[in-house]
Amino acid sequence: MAKTFVGSRLRQLRTERGFSQAALAQMLDISPSYLNQIEHDVRPLTVAVLLRITEVFGVDATFFASQDDTRLIAELREVLLDRDLGGVDVDPADVADMVAAHPSLARAMVNLHRRYQLTTTRLAAATEDRFNLTTGGSGSGTITVPHEEVRDYFYQRQNYLHELDTAAEELTAGMRINRGDLAGNLADRLRIVHGVRITRRMDLGEGVLHRYDPAAKTLEMSAHLSSGQTVFRLASELAYLECPDLIDTLVEEGHFTSAESQRLARLGLARYFAAATVLPYAQFHEVAEKFRYDVERLSAYYAISFETICHRLSTLQRPSMRGVPFSFVRVDRAGNMSKRQSATGFHFSSSGGTCPLWNVYETFANPGKILVQIAEMPDGRSYLWMARTVERRASRYGQPGKTFAIGLGCELRHAQRLVYSEGLDLSSDNATPIGAGCRVCERDNCPQRAFPALGRALDIDEHRSTVSPYLVRQS
User: Fold this and answer.
1) Report field, pTM of the whole predicted structure over 0.85
2) Cα dist from 78 to 306, 350, 377, whole Å
3) How far, in Å, CA of 434 to CA of 356, rounded?
4) Which of 133, 189, 293, 457 has the fewest CB atoms below 10 angstroms from its CB?
5) CB atoms within 10 A of CB 67
6) Tens-place pLDDT, residues 436-467
């Protein structure tokens, strides 16, 4: 085993669990001085001690792996490239060293930058100078809104909330849910335990799918909902009634900057609970492994939408029973990313835009067909991506429907666990080079580059033509 220094991570873990050095040393059967040396990177972590740590804390050994820092490194580098901060192109190796030595400080810098962007956005809105953000303000090209703040909340937690997930699973076990009559079981729970009256109506109003009145304890459901949609909405409302204190605690931990963000976070947590209720962790994990993560097969088996299955697969990161760590994304034809979650090191840029070479966008030309791609990020890490379109049809003539592309990706080292790897040459030599977005991508000669990279001087020669219009000056 190569020398592994994990001081900051171990110290963080010990502090979070409230253990003193002496107490943890006794639990690990090592001396306090040895533990102190490990925490200060004087001594490396041995295999024997690593195994004892995973047993004591109930974490996977990959918790201490260096690749877990990939996303934070990319986020911090993007902060440093912000033009408002001087656009400093720091050597990626220096950024990696900073994250490895001081991960909490690096995370604080990223969070501080997000708060700065939010404040700048609100100031621009207050002075009716909204468009300065994309022309002369910060290099983000986007406006931070409550949706972004809530996405970051789940993103930073790798899309897994242990207390909420286990609470939903315990509820499911207590109800002894029969998969064939899930809607009936949930409706009975709402009626019998919480006194909720449920009705189905045709006339809830334009675009309204369900509505709950807490005062009257009346839940109105649209008759247009499919069985899967009905189940999910019943479970979402049940979340507020079953674990209100837990939801309040999780929202408080998010330190959201507005009441709107708090309400949106509560909604996100309720939907997470709903997915964990409808697809309880242990049973869903077992079936997913058995089906080799075949999303269409899982969708048919559970009678749940393709998108919901993909989203739930991206949450299977319980330390004692990990699934494949996935990144999940939903985009529209215009390239807007309306959902993004990740349990991997894959980095979604906050500077606007994604990569046109990514197969997620190609699916719009092949509706309903699953496309598979081996893609390589600029840091050399390779991923297997599966993508397909999903359509939400209009309920009446003349009403526009919705079409999205859903992407689900994992690091290439996990690819053999997926049915989508069958018949593929999994060599990274066959990978398509993609990036997190043109503004932060390091690929200078990419023919699809739409914007110059932030913080880097251009090599402009008026008497020369090149494939890429944004060549970078080499120092």
Assistant:
1) no
2) 32, 8, 15
3) 8
4) 457
5) 13
6) 777 777 777 788 887 777 666 777 777 777 77
Q: Is 401 exposed, middle or buried (0-12, 13-18, 19+ CB in 10 A)?
A: exposed
For residues 70 and 62, is the Cβ–Cβ distance under 8 A?
no
Question: What are the tens digits of pLDDT across the range 61-91?
Answer: 656 655 457 777 777 887 887 766 666 667 7
CA–CA dist 118, 434 (Å, integer) = 28
Two tokens at 55? 């047993």
Alpha helical stretches, state H, 303-445: 306-313, 359-362
List, in order, residues 6 or more apart from 39 with CB less than 8 Å away.
7, 8, 10, 11, 14, 21
Question: What element of type H or E holds 390?
Answer: strand 382-392
Beta-bridged to residue 404, according to DSSP, are: 390
Query: Which of 269, 250, 254, 258 minimizes the C-alpha distance to 144?
Result: 258
From 442, 352, 458, select the one nearest 134 (Cα to Cα).
352
3-state SS, residue 368? coil
What's the distance, CA 247 to chain centroid?
Answer: 19
